[in-house]
Structure formats: structure tokens, C-alpha cells
Amino acid sequence: MPAILGVSHTSLTVRDMEKSADWYQRVFGWIEIGRLVDGEAISPRILLFDASTGFALGLSQPDDGSGDDFDYRRTGLDHLAFGLSDYEELDRWGAHLDELAVARSPVRELDLGKFISFEDPDGIQLELWVNRR
Questions:
Q1: Cβ-based neighbour number of residue 44 at 10 Å
Q2: DSSP letters for 88-117
Q3: Can you tell me the distance from the alpha carbon of 20 to that of 98, in angstroms, rounded to the nearest whole number?
Q4: How far apart are CA 25 and CA 95, in angstroms?
Q5: CA of 33: how far to CAs of 22, 41, 83, 121, in Å?
Q6: What is the pLDDT of residues 49-99, one digit of tens each?
Q7: Calpha distance 133→37 (Å, rounded)
Q8: Which site in 35, 64, 91, 119 is 20 to 30 Å from 17, CA atoms measured?
């Protein structure tokens, strides 16, 4: 079977890409690496980049977007999870989110590992996850 090296990027449809870009930069420390305008993409996008992992996030704001709240029950994205190295890092992220006044869950534990969940400005659920070793 052919190999996959990891996740390169993802793109999220948002209601206000400027507001979302500011939020993702503040919470994750990602940098803006570019913008696509009409004609270069299906809809305008802001491109953010995490230099530590090489992961890129596109934030798309279609002109004819519905403006609806995000709903994980709709076909498509349920949530997006980011892997962390260990439980201490999970605690550091919890403290970071608290400092930024980002509402979050307590640390939750499943058979697979521990995680914190929270939402971006459009209600898209994000998780910070540590796999059980």
C-alpha cells in the first residue's frame, strides 16, 4: 500500500475569515503565509502555517456561504484533533487556553488517551490529544 507521511493541510469554511485568522494566530501562534483571492481559489482564503509541524490551515469565506452555525451532525467535519507529546504538554495547553479565556472542556480520558476540547469562533470543535502509550 502507498504511504502517507502525515496531514499537510486542511481548509475550514468560516463566516469571518479575518476574525478566525486572528483567533487561530492568537491561540496557536500560527503565521499568515498568504491569501488567495477570487480566481485563485473557489473562494477567498487566508492561509496560516505552523512552523513547528509544517501543518497549514486554510480559512475560506465563500461569498455565498450560508452563515449557519457549525453543526457536527451535518455530513462533513465532526472535529479536528491535534496531537501532543505528553500529558504535561496537555496541561500547558489547558493553562494557555485559560489565559486566553478560551472556553474549554476539562481534561477528558478515554481508553485511547486524554484530551481537551474547545471551539473556534464558528463553533468548530478542536481537540488537543495525547495518545495512551
A1: 17
A2: HHHHHHHHHHHHTT--BPPPEEETTEEEEE
A3: 18
A4: 17
A5: 13, 15, 22, 21
A6: 999 999 999 999 877 778 788 888 887 889 999 999 999 999 999 999 999
A7: 44
A8: 91
Which among 128, 125, 51, 124 is positioned nearest to 97, based on CA atoms? 128
In sequence order, which residues have a C-beta less than 8 Å from that of residue 11 and are 6 or more positions away? Answer: 45, 57, 58, 59, 60
Environment class of 83 (CB within 10 Å of its CB; exposed 0-12, middle 13-18, buried 19+): middle
pLDDT at 36: 86
Which residue has 491535534 as its cell numbers? 82
Read off φ and ψ for residue 72, nearest 5 degrees. Answer: -60, -15
Residues in the chain: 133
